[in-house]
Write a structure and sequence with these properties.
CATH architecture of the largest domain: 3-Layer(aba) Sandwich
Structural class: alpha/beta
CATH topology of the largest domain: Rossmann fold
Strand order of the largest sheet: 11-15-10-5-8-9-16
Bound molecules: flavin-adenine dinucleotide
Radius of gyration: 22 Å
CATH class of the largest domain: Alpha Beta
Oligomer: single chain
Length: about 375
């Protein structure tokens, strides 16, 4: 696979006293499989569901995929493995799916990303969709990479937006160089065109309550290859250690916590509200927490519904990784701290005093709500 790049001026952005030069990259991906060019069309969106609920971000992606499909004059199909409850079909239809394709193997093999990839690859070879989209979630990202390699086509990962460019090609837009620039990437020579989209990058569209979708079973009768791995058990993780990129609530601490002993205040708040714990680089450098929890330029990029910044100044290298949080609460003793410029709620105070009170109040308010979620926390905060 090769790439052609050219730079083009975009709109510059002012960030504090630091001017971010405008830069956008246009990249053309050349896939290897010209044989896969023929396509009978259609946009497929891979959808995961568990416990009768769609994975977060699925309806947003279906709605966005619907816009892309509409611009190219194609239909949008949501693709699932196995069975799907009727209620979820209704939700998918209302957000833009004309069809729900249920991929089934006659032997109903045990689910795994390896098996799902084989089944999806076979379904794609049989039905030749023009585009295949999925979330950049743990499972979606895993399947997409395996699938693109298996089909010999291009894949643009972790996009923030999808559009349609020249010749009705999918134009996938993703942040690059720590979000200092964005790249628009097309895949003109192989099919299907593939992209994964960051959960929470796209807003939910207003549902069309009159829409309905046809459910179509796609039997895939292939000899399955031995996946080489076997799922033994599913263990629910500690919410504080949930993968940061998927967390709905992030409680982050900085050097303002003062010491490793005080770090437990961040963990206690996260525990009380079902949040995931994160940190600035300075907290990581002082070994209060491991580097996989660092947010920022050289750490993770997160987009939670709620980000609580405790004793964090708001240095640009940190905020680059959390600026897209839907709501930010900052606690800092310094009223001039840059983090307050981006916070929705600012608490000017000592984290060592504020955190124990906040944790106790929220623990009490949420005691009957296990794994409460951001909406319950907002409600508890608005009823002091
Ligand atoms: C190339 C490069 C890459 C980097 N990558 C990253 C990155 O990925 N992520 C990252 O986070 N940083 C990164 N950094 C470091 C970054 O520049 C900052 O140094 C770091 O984010 C600051 O961390 P901090 O907010 O914990 O500390 P500080 O900037 O020192 O801020 C501490 C804050 O705590 C407040 N405070 C102090 N005591 C209290 C108290 N008792 N109660 C409440 N508030 C209090 C202070 O007022 C202050 O605002 C990078 C730097 C470079 C050069």
């Amino acid at each position: 696979m090769s790439a052609e790049c050219m730079t083009q001026p975009g709109k510059g952005q002012q960030q504090g006293d630091f001017y971010r030069p405008p830069l956008r990259l246009y990249i053309k991906v050349k896939g290897g499989a010209l044989k896969a060019m023929s396509s009978t069309g259609g946009v497929w969106v891979l959808v995961e569901h568990r416990d009768e609920k769609l994975e977060d971000g699925s309806l947003e992606l279906v709605g966005h995929g619907r816009e892309v499909a509409g611009k190219t004059g194609q239909e949008l199909s949501a693709v699932i493995f196995g069975e799907i409850p009727g209620e979820l079909v209704t939700q998918l239809a209302r957000h833009g799916a004309s069809r729900v394709l249920c991929i089934r193997h006659p032997a109903a093999p045990e689910r795994s990303v390896e098996i799902d990839t084989q089944l999806l690859a076979a379904a794609i070879e049989q039905h030749s969709p023009d585009m295949v989209l999925s979330l950049e979630s743990i499972t979606g990202a895993d399947i997409a990479r395996r699938l693109a390699a298996r089909l010999g086509t291009g894949l643009v990962t972790a996009c923030d937006r999808l559009d349609v460019g020249e010749d009705n090609l999918l134009a996938a837009v993703k942040p690059i160089y720590g979000s200092k620039a964005s790249a628009t990437i097309i895949c003109p020579t192989s099919r299907p065109q593939m992209a994964t989209v960051n959960p929470d990058a796209i807003d939910l569209k207003t549902p069309d309550t009159t829409a309905s979708a046809e459910v179509v079973v796609l039997p895939v009768d292939i000899d399955l290859e031995d996946p080489g791995t076997k799922a033994v058990d599913l263990l629910r993780g500690d919410p504080r250690l949930v993968a940061l990129v998927e967390a709905e609530i992030v409680v982050a601490g900085g050097i303002g916590l003062g010491s490793r002993e005080n770090w437990k205040l961040v963990e206690e708040l996260a525990d009380a509200i079902g949040g995931s714990v994160a940190a600035t680089r300075r907290a990581v450098d002082d070994e209060w927490i491991t580097s996989d929890r660092q947010v920022g330029l050289t750490g993770k990029t997160v987009r939670p519904k709620l980000y609580i910044a405790c004793g964090i100044s708001g240095a640009i290298q940190h905020t680059m990784g959390m600026k897209d949080a839907k709501a930010i609460i900052a606690i800092n003793t310094d009223r001039e701290a840059p983090i307050f410029k981006m916070a929705d709620v600012g608490v000017i105070g000592d984290v060592l005093k504020v955190l124990p009170v906040l944790t106790a109040k929220l623990r009490e308010a949420l005691k009957d709500k296990p794994g409460p979620g951001a909406d319950a926390v907002f409600e508890a905060l608005s009823n002091p």
